[in-house]
Amino acid sequence: MRTIWGLLIAGAASFYLFFHTDTFNFLSNSTSLYAMAAEEQIEGPLKMEVILEREYLDGEVSQETIEETIWTLEDFWAKYDQWQLVDMDIDYIVFRRKMDDISPLLKANGYFGITEDGTLTIFNGRPQKTNIIQSFFQIDLGKLESTKCEELKKGIPIVSKDRYVEVLETFKSYTAGEKQAN
């Protein structure tokens, strides 16, 4: 019987210490010692790694990593108000933004071309089998004019968003399998 009473008294004492000391009092409305310690450690501006992801019309995603000094949270959030928050941790934050443009890669080295099966494709450099970036739709080569076919075989450089859209629109009318209204 003494053992049971001893265990009950020890349990009650443990229960009391757990819920009534500042170290373990998670249920009280006052600030915990852990939160106060964290507040005391932050001195001056906060430095954080910011990762900016840009998603382009052609599907390419680029990343830029910068170290940001945060003086006020209000100014920081205002600076990135055009960006979407994707991920956040204690030492980094990731923002993403959809760009209304094609990627720098396409502007510098992108070419529209055609694969052996007649699929309109973007290549990294002049059209070859091994450097495909993106494929679109199959073209009916029987409907395609010989000059346009030669252009695609040589490669049509993509230098701007306007050129990208123009070429896609031009060759959309030659899509295989669709019947054109006269």
| Structure class | alpha+beta
The tally of helices reads: 6
Q: What share of the residues does DSSP label as strand, in percent? A: 25-35%
Categorize the overall geometry. Answer: elongated
What oligomeric arrangement do these chains adopt?
Answer: single chain
The pLDDT mean sits at 78
The separation of the N and C termini measures 101 Å
Q: Indicate the CATH class of the domain at 105-173.
A: Alpha Beta
Q: Numbering strands along the chain, what is their spatial order in the largest sheet?
A: 2-1-4-3
Radius of gyration: 31 Å
What does this entry look like structurally?
- This protein has 182 residues and is an alpha+beta fold.
- Among the domains are: 45-98, Roll (Ubiquitin-like (UB roll)), CATH 3.10.20; 105-173, Bypass-of-forespore C, C-terminal domain (Alpha-Beta Plaits), CATH 3.30.70.
- 34% of the residues lie in helices and 29% in strands.
- The chain contains 6 helices and 8 strands; from the N terminus they run H-H-E-E-H-E-E-H-E-E-E-H-E-H.
- The strands form 2 sheets. It has a 4-stranded mixed β-sheet with strand order 2-1-4-3, covered by helices on one side. Strands 7-6-5-8 form a 4-stranded antiparallel β-sheet.
- A hairpin with a 5-residue loop joins strand 1 (46-55) and strand 2 (61-70).
- The longest helix has 19 residues, at 2-20.
- It is elongated and about 70 Å long.
- Mean pLDDT is 78; it is low at 15-35.
- Residues 48-97 form the Bypass-of-forespore C N-terminal domain.
- This is Forespore regulator of the sigma-K checkpoint.
- Residues 100-173 form the Bypass of forespore C C-terminal domain.
